[in-house]
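[job 0417] fold request received: Integrase recombinase xerD-like
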Amino acid sequence: MEVFHFSGFVQEALSKQYEQVQNPELKLLSESLPEFIQHSKAKNTQTKYTRRFERWRIWAFIFNEVNVLPASSIYITLFFLQLIQDSVSTSVIDEAHYGIKWVHEISGFKDPCDSAIVRAIVAAAKRLLSVPVKKKEPVTPEIMLSLFGRFGGTNASLSDLRVLMLCTLGYAGFLRFSELIALRRCDVQFEINIYRDGAWVVVAATTKSTCPVALCKRYFALANFTPNSQDYLFRALSTFMPSAGAFKFCNSSPLSYTRAR
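[job 0417] inference complete; emitting structure tokens
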């Protein structure tokens, strides 16, 4: 099978419609038309649409009765049915749909996707191939208790307490990850009988083993934080150092989301 070149393919389709153009100068202009038409879409969109149209072209070439351009809506429907059976993603269906539509329109042909049966098969594909949204389960006190049991033992390392602090502060203070990693040691104060202020998030101490304040003090002590330190609370750690018998912070940058996971 010949290699697919978008400009040449559209040029061939347009040439039949511009046969009446006889003037050499106008003919030269008409020959450059496909190259300029491509820029009606963004570069990434061009790439996606061209790739999906090429998939249609390869499929159509298997069957002698199928015409690539202009295409018949019935064969477009069968092509989409094949994609469904191949269990492609819904994004592939969308890109193929709009890619075929775009190439036909800029080539001056009627859009074969503008058909009730094609619209129906595209809608069916989205229903059949869509991945259901998996909602995250809420964090419960039982989950927090299990985290303390796993990471909060008497011999917990700095790495263990860092994980536990991330989870506990996020849970107790209703903080987003971006807010957690932006915290510095100087942002945290231990006060008695403090009232909630718009600029502060109050995390109360408890008498339970899961007390976030007690954990915070323990983490600060192991990390050797000073009260007025500008250091971020959550940073990357070096590998375990046998000579020191502990983990150490390896840089001054806040912890990344990827490393935290």
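[job 0417] notes: The domain at 8-129 is CATH 1.10.150.130 (DNA polymerase; domain 1). Strands lie at 235-237, 249-254.
[job 0417] exit 0
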